[in-house]
Amino acid sequence: MEAYADMVRRICFVHLKNRHDTEDVFQNVYLKYLLYEGSFESAEHEKAWFARVTINACTDWLRALARRKWVPLDVLAEESAELDNPSKEVLEAVLKLPEKYRDVIYLFYYEGYTAVQIAKILGKKENTVYTWLSRAKDILREKLGGEWS
Amino acid sequence: MVMSSTQNGLQKSMENIKATEQMKQNTLRYLEAQRTNQKRNIFQQRPYAALRYAMAVVCVFLMAGAGGYTVYSRPVSYISIDVNPSIELAVNRFDRVVSAKGYNAVGQDILQHIPLKNISYLQAIDRLLQDAYYSRYLNRDSQLVVTVVSEHSDTMLDQIHANDSFQALNALTYSSDTACMKEAHQHEMSFGKYRAFLELSQYDAEITVEDCHGMSMGEIQNRIRTCQGHNRKDTAGDNPMKGHQNGHSKSHGHH
């Protein structure tokens, strides 16, 4: 559990912003892992499996509960109380992005996946990922200034 | 990728978001509850399932003893850590150490002083290597050997190799198999040491398991190196059971 728990938590945070929802999805992801009967070729393969399953679990959770897909600032304040102000501004901007853009920004800038790898994880075409990355960066550039390249 | 300050800001904010210990413990409890519920559901759908399950439980208890045989306590991988102390860790599907056993007096003594259960195997190895009590055995003449039995031994060895303390010790790593492990345990020996014995016995037909019981891993490895040196001079042949320093040996240590 130790190896990918932080990543699962962060993906939940990017999508859900609510500690109770996060804990429910976190538990569901590990239940899926427990019931998974396939095998992993490598640690990278296993990590990508966790990323994909967590993103899907978050999306399913939001759909099932018909929750808001954007971030209520009061909840964000609760979740990110320990962050310093400049980080909070960046994080808020990322969390206000449409859901699909949040995933690519997180996977690209934080986990260091390439567009090709992200396309495989999300089950999308490579060009779609490039487009989403570009649009997400445009939005962030507009909100945070010209530093997003 | 060139990072701007805002991208660094994202990195820093994300670093602060981590799975809490409470979250992990709640998840383990939830999984246990789910496992129990799943059993109940099966019984409701299939009345005879309860009888079959009861028979299966009896079988499992007979085979495994009356311990709590849950998914969490069931080991799926094993790690043998040998210097002179020989310690074996049993690791469950969640990478947690569910049992630790010393295969000689010093190994048992160390386990009395250093708790290794219920933490990840990477934490357990790190804790061991960082501990002053264990470090007494890691001197210039000693040889740390880590042997893994697992379906994912390569992944596990990759993760073990990433540990800085481990790299500094020039440890040897091997993967082995369950047959070797079973034989080792019949001789009351860790499977890491037994694998080394099997390797040495390829060169030295007179060596016995009893001889190896009294030898440290440094002594066994020195004997192997000496024999390999003679062997190279004699045959110039490569031995398939040769280990790799700081690399994964694919040898299974079992004939």
Give an overview in words.
The complex is a heterodimer of chains A (149) and B (255). Chain A is mainly alpha-helical and 149 residues long. Chain A is built from 8 helices and no strands. In chain A, helix 7 (115-122) crosses helix 8. Chain A is globular and about 45 Å long. Chain A starts with a helix and ends in a 5-residue tail after the last helix. The mean pLDDT of chain A is 80. Chain B is of the alpha/beta class and 255 residues long. Chain B has 2 domains: 18-64; 76-249, no CATH class. Chain B is built from 12 helices and 7 strands. In chain B, a hairpin with a 3-residue loop joins strand 1 (75-82) and strand 2. Chain B is globular, with a radius of gyration of 22 Å. Mean pLDDT of chain B is 78; it is low at 56-69 and 234-255. The A-B interface holds A 1-3, 5-6, 8-10, 13, 23, 26-27, 30-31, 34, 39-40, 42-43, 46, 80, 82-84, 86-91, 94, 105-106, 109-110, 112, 140, 144-145, 147-149 and B 1-2, 4-7, 9-14, 16-19, 23-24, 26-28, 30-31, 34-35, 71, 93-96, 120, 122-123, 151-152, 154-155, 158-159.
- Approximate shape of chain A: globular
Might you state the CATH topology name of chain A? Answer: Butyryl-CoA Dehydrogenase, subunit A, domain 3
Q: How much of the residues of chain A is beta strand, in percent?
A: under 5%
Parts with pLDDT < 50 across at least 5 consecutive residues of chain B: 56-69, 234-255
Number of individual domains of chain B = 2
Which segments of chain A are poorly predicted (pLDDT under 50) over 5 or more consecutive residues?
A: none
> Quick one: how many beta strands of chain A?
0
User: How many structural domains of chain A?
Assistant: 1
**Spatial gap, N to C terminus of chain B:** 49 Å
Q: What is the CA-based Rg of chain B, rounded?
A: 22 Å
Q: What is the string of helix and strand elements of chain A?
A: HHHHHHHH
The first-level CATH class of chain A is given as Mainly Alpha
| Helical segment count of chain A | 8
What is the gyration radius of chain A calculated from CA atoms? 15 Å
Structural class of chain B: alpha/beta
Helix fraction of chain A, binned, reads over 70%
What is the N-to-C order of secondary-structure elements of chain B (H for helix, E for strand)? HHHEEEHHHEHHEHHHHEE
